[in-house]
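Good day; I would like, with your permission, to put a structural problem before you. What I wish to show you is a protein chain and, alongside it, a tokenised description of its three-dimensional fold. Thank you for your consideration; the sequence and its tokens are set out here:
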Amino acid sequence: MDYKYIEQLLERYWACETSLDEEAILRAFFRQKDVPAHLLPYKSLFAYADAARADGLGRDFDERILAQVERPTVKARRIPARRRMMPLFKAAAVVTVIVSLGAVGQHMFDRPRPDYDYDAYRDTYTDPQSAYGSVSEALQIVSESFRKSQTHENDSLSAVPAQKTTCKE
């Protein structure tokens, strides 16, 4: 079969010289099932309109879009007065803590510091020998406590069995 007319129409189509009727003829030709092999690469170019018509939006397109656009209505909840006042309670607690810390800090810095009065110092012992005896007794008690702690430490260490170590060469 001779496809000279179709080839001429294709030449004019590529040169942008075809009318709408001639383009309709090309689309109708390429819509056929038997298209020659040398014209087969152009079939998809002219069959795009039919494929585009098949890919429609669908009947439920409007419903899907409206479902996405419309927002559900939100019912108002009743909030009790205690819950509405909760931020104020928190703020009052913070203010109370800050004021309390400020008052304590001010009291600490404003109170008079007692200076040590060396003139009013009095010795508790009038006899140096009795003072020496009291100090030596206190040191003896401390010394005995140290000795007892060392013996307990040594006892606890001796209670742990010694591990035998062998060297393998």
About this structure: The mean pLDDT is 81. The CA atoms of residues 7 and 39 lie 9 Å apart. Residues 4-68 form one domain. The radius of gyration is 53 Å.
